Amino acid sequence: MSEASPRGTYLVISEALRKAVEEGEISDTLPSEADLMRTHGVARNTIRRALKVLEAEGALESAPGIGWRVARGGDRRSLLERMTDVIAEDSLATGDTYPSEAKLCERFGVSRTAVRRALAQMEGTGLLATVHGKGRTVRALPAPSVRP
């Protein structure tokens, strides 16, 4: 990256990777972190932050022994959308316990970091609340979504 980015370099890189995936330039496995570091002229931590953004959106997934790849499956909704849908899918009501981080990681096949980011967003919008000793509970029901 030759110019300083006002948005944060990792966000600029995540947008470039997202565009490459959407345009089909990357259709399976991404280049290695080392290759991405050389291409973008940044440190490994910056590349990892960019990859984590795309993982949280559900666009990429980490594959042990392989690296990063375009997310599999037909569900292209973001992790946040899928985790919000858990409330309806599991018939949860206000005050009910929301699934644990470990169960969400297993259910969606993503890292704990990605799950925690989505949970923080859900808490920020008032859908969930953390109750000491009880975990997270449903604080409000999401508005019904309209999908084509």
UniProtKB/TrEMBL annotation:
Residues 7-73, 73-141 form the HTH gntR-type domain. GO terms for biological process: negative regulation of DNA-templated transcription. Keywords: DNA-binding, Transcription, Transcription regulation. The keyword DNA-binding applies. InterPro entries: Bact_HTH_transcr_reg, Tscrpt_reg_HTH_GntR, WH-like_DNA-bd_sf, WH_DNA-bd_sf. PROSITE patterns: HTH_GNTR. One of its GO terms (molecular function) is DNA-binding transcription factor activity. This is Winged helix-turn-helix transcriptional regulator. It comes from Streptomyces alfalfae.
